[in-house]
Write a structure and sequence with these properties.
- Chain B: Keywords: Cytoplasm, Phosphotransferase system, Sugar transport, Transport.
- The complex is a heterodimer of chains A (about 575) and B (about 90).
- In chain A, about 50% of the residues lie in helices and about 15% in strands.
- Chain A is of the alpha/beta class.
- By secondary structure, chain B is an alpha+beta fold.
- Helices cover about 35% and strands about 30% of the residues of chain B.
- Chain B has a 5-stranded antiparallel β-sheet with strand order 3-2-4-1-5, covered by helices on one side.
- Classes of the chains: A alpha/beta (about 575), B alpha+beta (about 90).
- The interface between A and B is medium-sized, with 26 and 25 residues.
């Protein structure tokens, strides 16, 4: 047996024989031809065959994945008929008396180059479409008959170097039980498609292709990122059980999608999701998210060569608010610095970036940047249920100053006649111990708290979470952290304010019982953790969790807390 | 005939609206349709041509129609621009 580890890209377990999808050799040779008419005819036939294929893929994508995913193939069809593409190919064939495949490749390469050199990241990605279309035409011109994804007619696990959008769309769900690829990450195109198709997938395995032969038995564990080649019978049996358990669990989770999040004794909490871009909202709704608990706005600022304009930001915020259709959306103002840099701001290097000039500290200093974001947020507030939160607040003075800037911009907008919501809740992230300790004072002035556990843990334990040598100090269950969380929740509730948590801990199955018992009102996590969390909470009883949480605060180590949680859940 | 638009979509002119423009222009077989931006003029009957303009939010683009149904073609193209949330008429 051989075990390979990659990135878990789409959840679930698949066990089947390997189908190796090798991309054929599309290299072309320049050849002089006498009968250019025959070459032109070959080209027309290849284009026609390609159009027929794309029409079929489009129809299937439309049916299985919806209009949005099918649009890509509509533009492929247009490219196949594009006079600006096809006419130069024909001219080249006639003028130079060369073969169609070479001429096609020449012209296509120019378009690929054109897209690759474009300023906009979106247009750069269109080079992939151009390559995809070109390969399809070449396949017909070169008479390539090698097995393709469309030929699969028995249950298999597809193994490939990478999967193109066409490959993934052609995968027949009935037969393809899972896939694994050498390259790719969690957000690569194939990973996203795998999740929409609900096919278990592991990507980024580096060398799976060289270690598998067609027909080998393969287990793909899309939950852990493990791939097993030719596993023992015992192993297969173990994974069959794991697979059945997972299938039962999925069915159970799905039933909860439109349900409120209630404990056995009917205490209700809110399950929200963390997002990075407007496109993530789809996943939030599919997974039954009741709110966006953390919209990380820094992605709007990253991957560009200048600051995003007020309108660019306004459109992004408005899209999220509209898609959430009245459900709360907590937007965190720019949280840059630390491990997240913006090259165009040309910030000096710091000795301790996590303790340095970042987040609200930077925004209060660079108000030119901060005010643009606040204006965009205020304008967008008319389109939904907006909540604004400031990151890295260490003192009340910082919060007051940030609030004042916000109110100034609001007054300006109102004077200009722009509609701004009167119902914007204003909160802070609690991620610095000073703020947690003084939460009773903060609670008088803010509308809500959101506890950012990743940073709170690193600052409380004084351990850089990027430093592997001290990673053992990243201890979410350490009683010191629980006590701080408890202080924040108590202080907020005393003033009638609510408390959320955004960070890994909020979606953690061991932490959830504790946080529930401590009285946390909103849990914000990655979208895929929502239904498992709702399922867990629906099995818990609030009165028991209160007892558990209270007792956890008296423990002395993280290990003791974990044992206590286990003992309580096993009861 | 000619009309100028300011691109408001945050992705600039992306594939979906470009597809809409090309499909619309192609219907008018007796009318030439062009897009012009940053000193470059392309036929609107080519998706690669339209995308090659590399338009981004805030850029301006002129739609030009010449021929039998030029007024009708321009009106239909404007409709696509507006309904796709792509651009607004730039005075």
């Amino acid at each position: 047996m051989n075990k390979i580890s990659g990135i878990a890209a789409s959840a679930g377990i698949a066990i089947a024989r390997a189908f190796i999808l090798v991309h054929p050799d599309y290299s072309v040779q320049k050849e002089q031809v006498e009968d250019t008419g025959a070459e032109l005819k070959k080209l027309d036939e290849a284009l026609e065959q390609s159009r027929t294929e794309v029409e079929a893929i489009k129809a299937r994508t439309l049916q299985e994945l919806g209009e949005k995913k099918a649009e890509i193939f509509e533009s492929h069809l247009l490219i196949l008929s594009d006079p600006e593409f096809i006419n130069p190919v024909k001219d080249l064939i006639s003028k130079d008396s060369i073969n169609a495949s070479y001429a096609l490749n020449e012209i296509a390469t120019q378009f690929v180059g054109m897209f690759e050199n474009m300023k906009s990241a979106y247009l750069q990605e269109r080079a992939a479409d151009m390559r995809d279309v070109t390969k399809r035409i070449l396949k017909h011109l070169l008479g390539i008959t090698q097995a393709s994804a469309a030929d699969i007619n028995e249950e298999v696990i597809v193994i490939a170097e990478d999967l193109t959008p066409s490959d993934t769309a052609q995968l027949n769900r009935k037969y393809v039980k899972g896939f694994t690829t050498n390259i790719g990450g969690r957000t690569s195109h194939s990973a996203i498609m795998a999740r929409s198709l609900e096919i278990p997938a592991v990507v980024g395995t580096k060398d799976v292709l060289s270690q598998v032969a067609n027909g080998d038995l393969v287990i793909v564990d899309g939950l852990t990122g493990d791939v097993f080649i030719n596993p023992s019978e015992e192993m297969v049996a173990q994974y069959r059980t794991k697979q059945q358990e997972y299938d039962v669990q999925i069915a159970e989770w799905k039933k909860l999608r439109d349900e409120p999040t209630l404990t056995q004794d009917k205490t209700q909490v809110e399950l929200a999701a963390n997002i990075g871009t407007p496109a993530d909202v789809e996943g939030v709704l599919e997974n039954g998210g009741e709110a966006v608990g953390l919209y990380r706005t820094e992605f709007l600022y990253m991957g560009r060569d200048k600051l995003p304009s007020e309108d660019v930001q306004y459109n992004a915020y408005k899209t999220v608010l509209e898609k959430m259709d009245g459900k709360p959306v907590v937007v965190r103002t720019l949280d840059i610095g630390g491990d997240k840099e913006l090259p165009y701001l040309e910030m000096p290097k710091e000795m301790n970036p996590f303790l340095g000039f970042r987040a609200i500290r930077l925004c209060l200093d660079r108000q030119d940047i901060f005010r643009v974001q606040l204006r965009a947020l205020l304008r967008a507030s008319a389109h939904g249920n907006l909540r604004i939160m400031f990151p890295m607040i260490a003192t009340l003075g910082e919060f007051r100053q940030a609030k004042e800037v916000l109110l100034e911009e609001k007054a300006k907008l109102t004077a200009e006649g722009t509609v701004v919501s009167d119902n914007i809740q204003l909160g802070i992230m609690v991620e610095i111990p000073s703020t947690a300790v003084l939460a009773d004072q903060f609670a008088k002035e803010v509308d809500f708290f959101s506890i950012g556990t990743n940073d709170l843990i690193q600052y409380t334990m004084a351990a850089d979470r990027m430093n592997e040598r001290v990673s053992y100090l990243y201890q979410p269950y350490n009683p010191s952290i629980l006590r701080l969380v408890n202080m924040v929740i108590q202080a907020a509730h005393h003033e009638g304010k609510w408390v959320g948590m955004c960070g890994e801990m909020a979606g953690d199955q061991t932490a959830i019982p504790l946080l529930l018992g401590l009285g946390l009102d909103e849990f914000s996590m990655s979208a895929s953790s929502i239904l498992p969390a709702r399922s867990l909470i629906s099995k818990l009883t609030m009165s028991d969790m209160k007892t558990l949480a209270k007792e956890s605060l008296t423990k002395s180590t993280a290990e003791e807390v974990v044992e206590l949680v286990k003992a309580t859940l096993d009861k | 005939m000619q009309k100028t638009f300011k691109i408001v979509d945050e992705d600039g002119i992306h594939a979906r609206p470009a597809t809409g423009l090309v499909n619309t222009a192609t219907k008018f077989t007796t009318t030439e349709c062009y897009a012009e931006a940053n000193g470059k003029k392309v036929t609107l009957k080519s998706i690669l041509g339209v995308l090659s303009l590399g338009l981004e939010q805030g850029d301006t683009m002129s739609l030009i129609t010449e021929g039998e149904q030029e007024a009708e073609a321009l009106a239909k193209l404007q409709e696509v621009m507006i309904s796709e949330g792509l651009g607004e008429v730039h005075e």
